[in-house]
Amino acid sequence: MGAGDKFDAAKDKVSGSAKDAAGKVTGNSELQGEGKAQKLQGKGKDAAESVKDTAKGAAGQAEGAIGGRDDKENQR
Prior knowledge:
It comes from Nesterenkonia natronophila. InterPro entries: CsbD, YjbJ_sf. With 76 residues, the chain is mostly helical. It has one domain. 89% of the residues lie in helices and 0% in strands. It is built from three helices and no strands. The chain has helices at 3-26, 29-65, 68-74. Helix 1 packs antiparallel against helix 2 (29-65). It is rod-shaped and about 60 Å long.
């Protein structure tokens, strides 16, 4: 997960939490709903980036298992 992606996800979760809390305090159900939706969006971004990171790691392991990385290192 890149730093920019982490920041965007964190921003959405924090902003969403603030909107949710403000909506609860003021009795504004629309604002509260927006906050919950924004928090979920941030969590979704985190999950998507985690999947990407896992896929990259698995690809690297597969490459190493078939000799891609080991062969390159042995040629040095």
